[in-house]
Structures are given as structure tokens and as C-alpha cells.
Design brief:
With 455 residues, the protein is an alpha+beta fold. It has 17 helices and 17 strands. Strands 1, 2, 3, 4, 5, 6, 7, 14 and 15 form a 9-stranded antiparallel β-sheet that branches. A hairpin with a 2-residue loop joins strand 16 and strand 17.
Length: 455
């Protein structure tokens, strides 16, 4: 989750500024970049429990040592280090202490994967000293809510109080889930709309390919991507598939209207978060926000508010792909490869659009609802999701080959899809492989997952 925004503090005088702010993300294709984010659970190697913030060898020490040994600068909130930054990279904390890397905007997947590897090497080196491990899964396999301590970030305190008012699983989303996502650019409003529609329609396919959260509190939970299921009961005001994206007239202005109707969480002022939960940004524009009567918002406030909407694909000044479970090392490179292949090469984007253009809102909803439990075995429009995934991967692979971005050995980016091809061709998701291990060689214990899936 995001921290305070770093955009201009310009006072918002009109609604048109909000549209212009989003439109300011348009870039020529030569300037498109790839920004990869991934979250990991931390755990004590001795007892497998999640790290707390203040304990010796805990999350605070983790961040401090990363900064000291590898040149990261600390970001403080009320005297607590809650994030690190170096160049255009950021390391931050999710509410339950999940460690997140928000990577730099990079030109190729080769650079992105090198960044992922460097980050994990650094984190593992600190883990060797402090005695913790890192694991990639979509949902925590053993911990109960009460087993996980909250990180000392003001926005999380506000969200923690508000979440249960809107859904049963919002606190689980905050404390017990991890994802991997990629942020991608667009050239124009029309390009944004086309990419938004394609990526939103195909997001459940990515969810199925990356399904990796079959355990809750030490037992199978009946889902292959329980993380995805959690989002269906988090907050209907700010989550979901956004049917309006497929309507005529979709554009920056329509997304602004959506964001204006998303209830607020907070306003950030003078180093602290002011509770505005459930209040209206429209009222804020008119100087009528109960939390700050008489005060009007800035573009910083708008950028912060945009981070509090959680649809399957999110628009800021770029598009965020949000449908995948966290997972093993190779998956962290495969997720950006999938979406770059589909969205950054014109012929691939056209092919992907032809695949989904006739899907109806009912189709989108049916696919989204089926995938968390069934993943690739789900049926959609008289075909299995596995069949759809194979077709999507073929389009993405062709796109990456045509991009022809090569590493020093002459290899293009398509090899980063290999792990997804293995999943789709076998029809077995990462979650199903874990369930098989649980029933056989793990002797119905989940604990071996911390050994076998640790980075």
C-alpha cells in the first residue's frame, strides 16, 4: 500500500484538474516503462511466526539493517522507520509487516528481473543475520489475525477501524495477503481505455495462473486463490471489476467520477493522518469535509485518495495489474512478462482485444467469481479457463518476441513466461501443487511450506 504522495501540492480549483492529472500520465511508446511491485511474508525461522515491528530482530531491525548495509535511506513516521528509498525504488510495509518492493520504472523485463533478484538477495542477507525468512504466497498459510501485529503507520489505524464496516474480510486483506503486480504506461486516453478493458477482462486469467493461496490457519481452505476471494468481501465501494470501464464514453473523466464516489479514508497533514473515513471527496472539493471544515484539497490529496481504491485494475497515471497472488521467485518475473507481452506490443494488444471485446458484464462477473475456487479448471463460455490461459499466453509470447528486447546473451523476454506455460500446459496451479504436497509428503502439515517456498 502507498505512503504519502509526492506530487504537486497545487490547490484543486476545478474538477477538470483531476482529469488533467490522470491525463498527465500519457507518454510516447519510447518512454513506456515497467514498474514491478511484490510483497513477501516475513517469519522467524525458529518458530515460523510472523515478525513483529518492535521485537529484537523484527521488522524495524530488518529495515534498519537493509538501509545500513545496502544504502537505502529511511522514511520515518512519528520516529518509526516505516519505509526505505533508493533512487526510484521504495521498500515499504504492508499492515501486517509484509515487505514490499516498489521497483523503479525500467525499460525491459531483463532489468526488472535483475532488480527483483537484487532485492531478494539483499533481504535474504539480512535474514541470515537476524534469523528471519521470506516467503511468497497469496495468503498467510498458518497465522490467525490475532497472531499478526500491526505496523505503526497512521493510515493503517484508520483503515483498520473502517474496514469491518464494509466487509467481513477487509482485515484479512490487510494482514494476511500478498500480491505481485506490475504498473504499465499508456500513450493516450484511447490507449489507456483499450489497455484498461483488456487487462480488466483478463485479470481473472492471471489470477488463475498465479493461484497460490490454498491454506488458512494450517489447513486447506477450499480455494486455490483465497487471496482473490478475500477481495470479494473487503469493501464493495472500492473493489471489483468496474463494469463502467467497458461502457461507451469511458475515459479519464469517467474514472474521475468513480474516484469521487469512493468514500475517503484520510487526509494527510503535517506528518499525520486525519480520519475522514466514509466522507466524500466531492464535499472536500467544496470545502465541506467534516474532517477539515473550510479546507479544500490539493493534488496531493487527490493522489492519496486514488491509492484507496482497490479494483482489479487501478488507474493512476499508469495502470496497475492487481489480480495475482504472491509466489515463488520465478513468478515475480513472470507477472510483468505476461502483461508487458499483452499490452506493450500493438499486434498483441489487438489480438487480446479481439479475444475479449464481446464479453458482457455478466461474463466478466462469472469469470471473476469462478476463478478463486477453481482457477484453471473453471468453465467459461463453454471452454476451460486453462484453454483461455493457453491462448492468452500465446498472444503474450508473440508480443514479447516482437518487442525483441534482448539481454547480453541475445535472449528476448519471452523466456520469463516459461513458468506460466508449465502451469497452463499441465493444468496444475501452484496452489494445487501445494495441496498435493500437503496430502502426501508433508503428511497433512502446512509447516514445510516455509522451507520449500522460502526465498
Amino acid at each position: 500500500m502507498s505512503g504519502p504522495s509526492k506530487v504537486s501540492g497545487e490547490l484543486i480549483e476545478s474538477r477538470s484538474q483531476l482529469v488533467e492529472y490522470l491525463a498527465g500520465g500519457c507518454k510516447p511508446a519510447a518512454e513506456w516503462r515497467i514498474g514491478t511491485e511484490h510483497e513477501k511474508f516475513t517469519f522467524h525461522r525458529g518458530n515460523l511466526k510472523p515478525l513483529t515491528y518492535e521485537e529484537q530482530g523484527g521488522v524495524r531491525d530488518l529495515l534498519t539493517e537493509l538501509g545500513r548495509r545496502f544504502g537505502w535511506s529511511p522514511i520515518l513516521e512519528n520516529g518509526n522507520v516505516i519505509a526505505l528509498e533508493k533512487g526510484k525504488c521504495n521498500i515499504s510495509l504492508e499492515p501486517g509487516g509484509q515487505l514490499e518492493l516498489s521497483g523503479a520504472p525500467l525499460k525491459t523485463l531483463h532489468e526488472t528481473c535483475a532488480e527483483v533478484h537484487q532485492h531478494l538477495r539483499e533481504a535474504k542477507a539480512i535474514g541470515e543475520v537476524l534469523g528471519f525468512g521470506l516467503i511468497g504466497l497469496g495468503f498467510h498459510p498458518t497465522a490467525k489475525r490475532e497472531d499478526i501485529s500491526w505496523m505503526p503507520k497512521g493510515r493503517y489505524k484508520i483503515m483498520r477501524a473502517y474496514m469491518p464496516k464494509r466487509g467481513k474480510l477487509g482485515l484479512d486483506m490487510m494482514l494476511r495477503t500478498c500480491t505481485v503486480q506490475v504498473n504499465l504506461d499508456f500513450a493516450s486516453e484511447a490507449d489507456m481505455v483499450k489497455k484498461f478493458r483488456v487487462s480488466l477482462a483478463l485479470q481473472p486469467i492471471a489470477t488463475a495462473l498465479f493461484a497460490n493461496s490454498p491454506f488458512t490457519e494450517g489447513k486447506p481452505n477450499g480455494f486455490l486463490s483465497y487471496r482473490s476471494q478475500v477481495w470479494t468481501d473487503t469493501d464493495p465501494d472500492r473493489c471489483g471489476m468496474l463494469p463502467f470501464v467497458f461502457d461507451a464514453g469511458m475515459g479519464f473523466e469517467r474514472y474521475v467520477d468513480y474516484l469521487l464516489d469512493v468514500p475517503m479514508y484520510f487526509v494527510y497533514r503535517d506528518g499525520r493522518y486525519i480520519d475522514a473515513s466514509g466522507q466524500s471527496f466531492r464535499d472536500f472539493l467544496e470545502g465541506k469535509l467534516p474532517a477539515l471544515p473550510g479546507e479544500r484539497p490539493t493534488l496531493v490529496d487527490w493522489a492519496d485518495h486514488a491509492t484507496t481504491a482497490f479494483p482489479e485494475v487501478r488507474l493512476k497515471r499508469y495502470l496497475e495489474m492487481r489480480g495475482a497472488d504472491g509466489g515463488p521467485w520465478r513468478g515475480l518475473c513472470a507477472l510483468p512478462a505476461l502483461w508487458v507481452g499483452l499490452l506493450y506490443e500493438p499486434a498483441a494488444l489487438d489480438s487480446a482485444w479481439q479475444l475479449v471485446k464481446d464479453w458482457t458484464p455478466t461474463d466478466h462477473d462469472a469469470l471473476r467469481r469462478a476463478v478463486p475456487r477453481q482457477a484453471l479448471t473453471a468453465s467459461f463460455k463453454k471452454r476451460s479457463v486453462r484453454d483461455w490461459a493457453l491462448e492468452v499466453l500465446a498472444i503474450a509470447e508473440d508480443g514479447l518476441k516482437r518487442r525483441a528486447q534482448r539481454d547480453g546473451m541475445g535472449a528476448d523476454e519471452s523466456a520469463f513466461l516459461d513458468v506460466l506455460w508449465e502451469t497452463a500446459r499441465s493444468g496444475r496451479t501452484p496452489a494445487e501443487r501445494l495441496l498435493e504436497a500437503y496430502e502426501t509428503r508433508w503428511n497433512r502439515s502446512v509447516e514445510p511450506v516455509f522451507r520449500e517456498l522460502a526465498y
